[in-house]
Amino acid sequence: MSRGLKATIAILAALVVLALLALPGLRQAIQRISKSPKSEQEARREVMQAPISTPTDVNVQAQMYWLSPTTPGSLAATSVQIPLSADSVQRAKQLLNALIVMSPAPARRTLPADATLLAFYIQPDGTGIADFSDELSTGTPSGILSEQLAVDSIVQTLGANNTGIQKLKILIHGQDAETLAGHLDISGVFPVSSAALTAAPAMGK
Amino acid sequence: MIAAALPSRAFGQAAQIAPAPAAVQAATQISAPALAQSAAPLRNALAVVVLDPSHGGADQGARGSTGITESDVALSFARLVRISLEGQGLRAVLTRQANDGPSFDDRAKLANGQRGVIFVSLHVSSTGQPGTVRVYSLPPDNLPVAPRTGLLPWDRAQSGYLELSRKLAELVQIQMAQHFHGSPETPLVARVRQLRTIAAPAVAIEVSSVSLPDRGPLDQMGPSFADAVARAVAAFRVVYESEGR
Question: Topology of domain B43-140+152-244, per CATH?
Answer without folding.
Answer: Aminopeptidase (3.40.630)
